[in-house]
Q: What sequence folds into this?
């Protein structure tokens, strides 16, 4: 069985988790735009306040910071800062041939932490709640990375 084949259940598990994280990260851009359009605020550039098909009735103050929009931008930025590390670490982890149950727990655990982080951020939970979910996700990435280093080091030594 090839490591990077859908006949490998570890790779299939990674593929599902990675695809969910990619969709979630890309989806944040759409949620940000949707929020801007709903509340007519948080637009960034002067040309965004011009009358167009998507903005038929521009309002004063439409351009400029708005916490209701910026909150979603911050969630998106956090995804852009964290998800790529998961994608790379997870793929390297697959190549180590880990037990399926370990891969499932780590990959789906990461997805869960990112979804809970989104919920905590989007609903304005206290920092400690959001930070807990972020930390758990980072610890999963660190754990996978250390596993990769360990396996690779045993091969080279």
A:
């Amino acid at each position: 069985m090839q490591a990077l084949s859908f006949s490998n259940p570890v790779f299939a598990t990674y593929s599902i988790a990675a695809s969910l994280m990619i969709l979630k990260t890309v989806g944040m851009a759409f949620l940000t735009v949707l929020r801007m359009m709903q509340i007519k605020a948080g637009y960034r550039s002067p040309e965004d306040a011009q009358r167009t098909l998507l903005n038929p009735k521009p309002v004063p103050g439409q351009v400029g910071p708005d916490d209701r929009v910026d909150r979603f931008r911050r969630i998106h930025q956090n995804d852009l800062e964290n998800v790529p590390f998961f994608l790379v670490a997870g793929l390297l982890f697959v190549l180590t041939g880990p037990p399926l149950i370990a891969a499932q727990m780590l990959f789906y655990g990461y997805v869960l932490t990112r979804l809970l982080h989104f919920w905590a951020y989007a609903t304005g939970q206290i920092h400690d709640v959001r930070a807990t979910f972020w930390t758990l996700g980072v610890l999963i990435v660190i754990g996978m990375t250390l596993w990769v280093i360990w396996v690779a080091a045993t091969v080279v030594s």
Remarks:
- The radius of gyration is 20 Å.
